[in-house]
Design a protein that fits this description.
The structure is a single chain. By secondary structure, this protein is α/β, with parallel strands linked by helices. The chain contains eleven helices and eleven strands. The strands form three sheets. The chain has a five-stranded parallel β-sheet with strand order 5-9-4-10-11, with helices on both faces. Strand 1 and strand 2 form a beta hairpin.
């Protein structure tokens, strides 16, 4: 993924560039190693981003915006601030998040599965925050001291960098911290036997939820998790219905909010 970005400098001028790593590139600009312009203009902050699948697309957009006057760039930024942020599809493992996202993509909606975006989510030690590697069968003691988290800054870049409605699907331990990014939360739900059977049938060897211990941990916490999200305004959607019915329901609710 490539980013077209705008940086505001201390003299209020705006620098336009592209990168495939915003954090690294901004650090280069701060250290005056990011190009001729920012070597002589102190950079302050990234004020706008857009995401692209290819470098060529990002370069084309960069060239377009570089030709704009400052006022037009500021209008672009202000319009982004005023637009809707997007939608989150969440739910415990086994409720069908990845399946829903794949089907939304087939419908040509801008939808992302957070587990499919490289570097966005990872396991970490709860005490040290050190990134660690998960594998199926790690056991309850390991799971009690580690957590699956999302890099919120990267998620902000993805949600904020779109020119159209964006739908994000997934669940992490720090989910409550990024709920404010979204206009509406959809909570996928299904019966206990349904999600347990789906977890047992998971094809990938190291996919969370395949072991008895992991399934029991989900069973112990899912009711409280769902109750909390509904209390925060999440809209429950049953995935006991056919996939077509669920997709139609999600699309209808997204369009109602647009």
């Amino acid at each position: 993924m490539y980013f077209m970005y705008l940086i505001e400098c201390s003299d209020k001028s705006i620098y336009t560039g592209i990168t495939n790593d915003l954090e690294r590139r901004f650090a280069e600009h701060k250290n005056k190693k990011g190009g001729h312009y920012t070597s002589s203009h102190k950079v302050e902050k990234i004020i706008y981003t857009e995401n692209f699948q290819t470098k060529e697309e990002a370069l084309k957009r960069e060239a377009q915006i570089k030709g704009w006057r400052r006022e037009k760039k500021l209008n672009l930024i202000n319009n982004r601030i005023n637009k809707k942020k997007g939608f989150l599809i969440t739910g415990i493992p086994g409720t069908g998040k990845s399946t829903i996202i794949k089907n939304l993509q087939k419908k040509k909606l801008l939808a992302f599965d957070i587990e499919e975006i490289e570097g966005l989510c990872y396991w970490r030690d709860k005490k040290t925050s050190k990134k660690v590697q998960y594998h199926s069968g790690v056991g309850k003691d390991w799971l009690d001291t580690h957590e699956w988290v999302c890099d919120i800054n990267k998620l902000k870049e993805i949600v904020g960098g779109q020119n159209e409605t964006v739908i994000i699907g997934g669940i992490t331990s720090n989910q409550n911290e990024y709920l404010p990014l979204f206009d509406k939360i959809f909570l996928l739900r299904c019966g206990r036997n349904t999600f347990i059977n789906r977890l047992k049938a998971r094809s990938r060897r190291d996919e969370y939820g395949k072991t008895v211990t992991e399934r029991q941990m989900i069973l112990d916490s899912y009711r409280a998790f769902e109750k909390d999200l509904i209390g925060r305004g999440a809209v429950p959607i049953s995935t006991e219905d056919s996939i077509d019915e669920v997709i139609d329901k999600v699309i209808s609710m997204v369009n109602d909010q647009a």
